[in-house]
Amino acid sequence: MRFFPRSLLGGALCALFGATGLQAAPSVDPSRLGSDLTPIGAEKAGNADGSIPAWDGGLTKPPAGWSPGHGDPFGADKPLYSIDASNVAQYQAQLPEGQAALIKTYPGYRLDVYPTHRSCAVPAEVAERTRANAGQSRIGSGGWRLEQAVGAAVPFPMPQNGVEVLWNFKLRYMAKARRAQLSLLMREKGGDLFEVKQWATEYYPYNDPAVKSPADTDDIEAKLLYDVLSPSSRAGEMYLLHSLLDRPQDAWIYFPGQRRVRRAPSFAYDNPVAGSDSLYFVDQINMFTGALDRYDFKLIGKKEMVVPYNSYKLVDKANKYKDLMGADYLNRDVQRYEKHRVWVVEATVKSDKRHSFAKRVMFFDEDSWNLLHVDMYDAKGNLWRVQEGSQWADPGIQACTSFEYVSYDLVARRYLADGFTQEGEVLDLTAGLEGRVTDSLFNPSELRRRGER
Question: What integer pLDDT is reported at residue 189 of this predicted model?
Answer without folding.
Answer: 86
